Amino acid sequence: MDINLRKAAIVGCGFVGASIAFRFLQQGTFSHLVLIDANTAKAEGEAFDLSDGLPYGAAMEITAGGYDDITDCALVVITAGVNQKPGETRLELIGRNAAILRSIMAEITARDFKGTLLVVSNPVDVLTYTAYKLSGYPRERVIGSGTVLDTARFKQLLGRELGVDSRNVHAFIMGEHGDSEFAVWSGANVSGLNLDDFCHLQRMSLTSARREALYQRIRGSANEIICRKGATYYGIAMAVGRIASCIMKDERSVLPISVVLEGEYGLSGLALSIPSIVGRNGLEKTLEIPLSPDEERAMRSSAEQLLSVVAELKL
Hints:
Blueprint: E1 4-11, H1 15-27, E2 32-36, H2 40-51, E3 61-64, E4 73-78, H3 94-109, E5 116-119, H4 124-135, E6 142-144, H5 148-162, E7 169-170, E8 173-174, E9 182-183, E10 189-190, E11 193-194, H6 195-201, H7 208-229, H8 234-248, E12 253-255, E13 258-262, E14 268-273, E15 276-279, E16 282-286, H9 293-313
Parallel strand pairs: 1-2, 1-4, 2-3, 4-5, 5-6
Antiparallel strand pairs: 7-10, 8-9, 10-11, 12-15, 13-14, 15-16
Helix pairs in contact: 1-8, 3-4, 4-9, 5-7
């Protein structure tokens, strides 16, 4: 069956899945969106609720369905899993969510699905690699949301610190989407102007201590939100909407998605977030951007932590 470039499915209709569906409705990226959940009534309810807003949104069809409906989908977004508890790290989720992903991948691979898999469930790097191994698909077709959200947090906080529109801030969070992630300060810039040069022009100073404080806020952002409202979902919905738009419109934009590494930075056998060109084929190309010595050490440290987790899965 040919791929319908305007059709997508979301597996998992919790807060994150439903928020992503709402974002897709706002964007109008797809003409048909299928919602799949172990709780069929939940998927149906979300589809009914979203459909009520169609007269004020994009022209599209939103339905609850099953795995047979994914065969001609261009994109399948996996959000199914249990929520992160207050104080719980994303890596501690692995035992519970790996089992859920295994059952989902068995259903997907039983169909003739030729589109792109976008893993959002946490811990996203470990689960992206798990989906890649279980599916047998090429790495271009199995990607994770990675640190796209973390990078948005970085740009937003840095923009506020510098007193400039965050959309003019260009910087990355790389590595694990979790506690071992790191900020790439060496490449940060404001509309092409080196961060230090921008600060000099603004007659301000961004000290090492201040940079560390900003990084800690980014690193702890998710837990701060979870402690206050139980879960995070709006930010990740915006991030996934951005990734989906890049794929469906073949934008070839650079985003720090989670990808299976094949020698980048001397690493393999795991998935981590590095800047990558995202387009119609999912992952178009990875970009091994220059890192400072400290950032290279942080990348290796992040990889070592995830490699130990991946080894325990015996994929």
